[in-house]
Specification:
The structure holds two protein chains of two kinds.
Chain A lengths: L3 H32 L5 H12 L4 E7 L2 H10 L1 H8 L3 E7 L2 H13 L7 E3 L4 H4 L10 H4 L16 E13 H6 L8 H14 L3 E3 L10 H4 L2 H6 L4 H5 L11 H14 L12 H9 L3 E7 L2 H7 L8 E5 L10 E12 L7 H11 L2 H11 L25 E5 L5 H10 L3 H10 L3 H17 L1
Parallel strand pairs in A: 1-2, 5-6, 8-9
Antiparallel strand pairs in A: 3-8, 4-6, 4-7, 4-8
Helix pairs in contact in A: 3-17, 18-20
Chain B lengths: L1 H36 L17 H8 L2 H32 L5 H13 L2 H12 L5 H8 L16 H26 L3 H10 L3 H12 L1 H17 L2 H6 L11 H11 L3 H26 L8
């Protein structure tokens, strides 16, 4: 009897200690995989196992758009690729578009980037230390735009699509008020005012609450006025780009004129993108300024009469004799992180993705323009007449160089927030003066 | 005997080792890292981290007016919640007395606290919405069209609109805490006070207030922490907008880190927040001279 209690205590304590140790030990192994650049034992054993079974490879491929996900599912990307590469499995992961960049930054810190990393043009600079150069890749060589977005003289990403920015409109509303497609900025503002005076519709739907939907104006118009797709980099060479006569200032005067005309409903800042989309879709609003991608959004909405929807390029010029500058966006740069365990397979996949067989099928479905030299995409009838303007001139949008990024970070330069401030009616001149001051200050450092 | 004492030690060591290790790994190590990063210019991605001394801290307060604006907004939350505390106490006293259906009222009052904060923010975003929004609808129905506002986009009232949501959400929790405090006061104190002929105001001042000082201390602390760290309500309802008008310190920190890739600066802001909480709490405790019953 005397000895029983200590024995029970010993047994119990052993059980409890080992129970508590198990999660701790397994926690440690996980920590190591994250920090030791994938050199811990766990992945190795996995790899060995895989080699035995004729090298099955899983390529992780995140995407940020539900539209892309739908298209990949519809066209069956995973199995199409498996037909040609039976050992490779493509693992798609859908992330929320607003969280995508943050997620990738966090994964980068943990050395857990995927095998194929789609990026936006502006992020190439941020990730350049973590992705491999793709100069020798066939897909990069045959791409029209890849070389335009070189960072430190290397191609780091192969862009998937090219698209333009449009103003989407209801043909019936334009007809009702006898409005022609505007050819100049003045005509555009006048058209909006005509609809406003009619009192029946909101002229332009704007999801100002979300900030980003003002990008066709606040982000792109300085480039259009300057006729310089790399205007951010140009701005970084100037001390006071917010001065009258500079493209940024002139563009923003125009934007302020539009916002002051109150043609975006009673409270554009109280409406988010989803609401603005519905307002346009349900005929409450006559126009909405968004990129070509919005076409697939519209198609997916029920109750939208696609025959009533038209698109025209946003006119920024002052007179019809000036060149009609319009933004050309290149998006979704395929890159390969250095941490990928299967860089060769990832390269192979990118080459396949941009091969005629898959790429033209996919782009036709997505209704976006091709970035590849020999591939032409039929865009259907939705954009009929949109490009029939005099003196059309494409301005290829770029994300700004490293000098610009430094200033952007230092003064937290955010044109979309500026757009919100302008809609809220902040003092425009004071805003420009303050920007000049902090810009100059940041440049001097 | 020796083995028993050894077993005791092993047992103690075994039980202590794990929590201590976990604490070091998940609390202390990240904190030290945070402090370290706050002295660098790390952008969150580059392999290289350059030490720049106190630059981040200096820049935070001298170079950016938005930090002050955000802190002012935090201050608005703090002050309004502080003003609400006596009212919350009054409600608690009311619910503690024998009123009809007090249980029902208790549940109703506590309800907002257990609803998901994100859901609350969305509900109120629609409530304040300029298009088909509930609040403007109510005002219209009551014939008070003149009071209709852009609740979330007018610079001068956006913060008040948001603070209202925060109060709606957290007041119930404070009331319940006060109630718990009230119920912990021994009944015999009230009985003897009754014998001594104390009126209800004296009861309140000499029995209830000292009795719930501990709870009050907790609530004041929660108020500081809550006001400085308020995040989900402005993030979802306005994203700090229009411009930075309703941005808070946490929101601004997040923006600094992820939108503008200044992880060094954001870490410095995190540390600053920690220090601010400690200082404000110290000041508040001294100001209210908070000592619980039996603590002299």
């Amino acid at each position: 009897m005397y000895n029983v209690r200590p024995r029970i205590t010993r047994v119990l304590s052993m059980i409890m200690i080992s129970a508590l140790m198990i999660p701790l030990v397994s926690g440690c192994t996980k920590g190591e995989t994250a920090t030791n650049k994938g050199q811990s034992t766990q992945p190795d054993t996995q790899q060995e196992q895989k080699e035995e079974k004729k090298d099955p490879v899983t390529l992780k491929f995140p995407i940020w758009s539900t539209i892309t996900e739908d298209l990949f599912t519809k066209l069956d990307l995973v199995n199409e690729y498996k037909k040609e590469h039976p050992n490779v499995t493509i693992e798609l992961e859908l992330l929320k578009d607003t969280e995508y960049e943050n997620t990738m930054k966090i994964r980068n810190a943990a050395n857990e980037l995927p095998d194929i990393l789609p990026l936006k043009s502006a992020w190439l600079i941020n990730f350049k230390d973590n992705i491999v150069p793709l100069d020798d890749l066939d897909a990069a060589k045959n791409n029209i735009f890849a070389a335009d977005f070189k960072v430190d003289d290397h191609i780091y990403g192969v862009p998937e699509s090219q698209f333009n920015e449009f103003v989407w409109y209801h043909k019936s509303i334009f007809k009702e008020y006898g409005i022609e497609i505007p050819q100049t900025w003045g005509e555009f503002v006048a058209a909006a005012k005509t609809i406003k005076d009619g009192g029946k519709y909101i002229p332009i739907a704007m999801g100002g609450k979300d900030g980003w939907p003002n990008y066709p104006f606040n982000e792109f118009m300085p480039s259009l006025v300057a006729n310089d797709g790399d205007y951010w980099s140009t701005m970084a060479t100037k001390d006071e780009p917010f001065t009258k006569g500079e493209a940024f200032y002139d563009a923003y005067v125009k934007i302020q004129e539009l916002y002051d005309a109150k043609v975006m409903g009673p409270d554009p800042l109280g409406v988010g993108f989803d609401q603005s989309k519905l307002m346009f879709g349900s005929n409450q609003a006559a126009m909405i300024a968004l990129g070509q991608w919005f076409g697939s959004d519209l198609k997916s909405m029920t109750d939208v009469d696609m025959n009533d929807i038209g698109a025209f390029l946003l006119p920024v010029r002052n007179s019809v004799d000036d060149p009609f500058n319009t933004i050309s966006m290149v998006d979704t740069f395929f890159s390969i992180p250095k941490s990928s365990k299967y860089p060769d397979e990832a390269k192979e996949f990118i080459n396949w993705f941009f091969s005629d067989a898959w790429y033209s099928k996919y782009m036709t479905e997505a209704q976006l323009q091709s970035t590849m030299k020999d591939v032409k995409i039929d865009l259907g009838t939705m954009f009929d007449g949109a490009f029939d303007v005099s003196n059309l001139n494409y301005v290829l949008n770029k994300g700004g160089n490293e000098d610009y990024k430094k200033i952007e970070t230092a003064i937290k330069f955010d044109v979309k927030k500026m757009g919100q401030d302008m809609m809220a009616g902040k003092d425009f001149n004071k805003m420009m003066q303050d920007m000049n001051k902090s810009w100059k200050n940041a440049r001097s450092k | 005997m020796k083995t028993i004492s050894m077993q005791k030690n092993i047992l103690l060591f075994g039980f202590l080792l794990i929590p201590v290790l976990l604490l070091l790994m998940f609390v202390l190590y990240p904190l030290i890292e945070l402090v370290r990063i706050s002295f660098t210019d790390w952008n969150g991605m580059a392999a290289q981290q350059v030490y720049i001394g106190f630059d981040n801290y200096i820049k935070m307060f001298t170079d950016s007016s938005d930090v002050w604006l955000s802190l002012r907004n935090n201050g608005i939350y703090f002050i309004f919640h502080l003003i609400m505390i006596p009212l919350e106490l009054a409600i608690a006293v009311l619910l503690d007395s024998k009123i009809r259906a007090s249980k029902f009222f208790k549940s109703i009052i506590f309800m907002p606290y257990i609803i998901n904060g994100v859901a609350i923010s969305y509900i109120f975003a629609f409530f304040y919405s300029p298009i088909n929004g509930g609040l403007n609808g109510i005002l219209e129905a009551l014939g008070l069209e003149s009071l209709i506002q852009n609740w979330l986009t007018n610079d001068s009232i956006v913060n008040i609109s948001l603070v209202f949501v925060s109060i709606w959400r957290f007041s119930g929790f404070h009331v319940i805490l006060f109630l718990a405090g009230l119920q912990s006061i021994p009944q015999d104190q009230f009985e003897s006070a009754k014998i001594d002929g104390a009126n209800s105001i004296q009861n309140f001042w000499y029995i209830i207030v000292p009795g719930i000082k501990k709870v009050l201390e907790v609530i004041l602390f929660l108020n500081i922490v809550g006001a400085l760290q308020v995040f989900d309500i402005p993030y979802i309802m306005t994203q700090g907008g229009p411009g930075h008008a309703s941005s808070t310190f946490t929101l601004y920190t997040l923006e600094t880190a992820f939108k503008f890739n200044s992880f060094g600066m954001a870490s410095a802001m995190g540390i600053t927040m920690l220090i601010l909480i400690i200082i404000l709490n110290g000041v508040q405790n001294r100001l209210f001279n908070l000592k619980g019953v039996g603590e002299e």
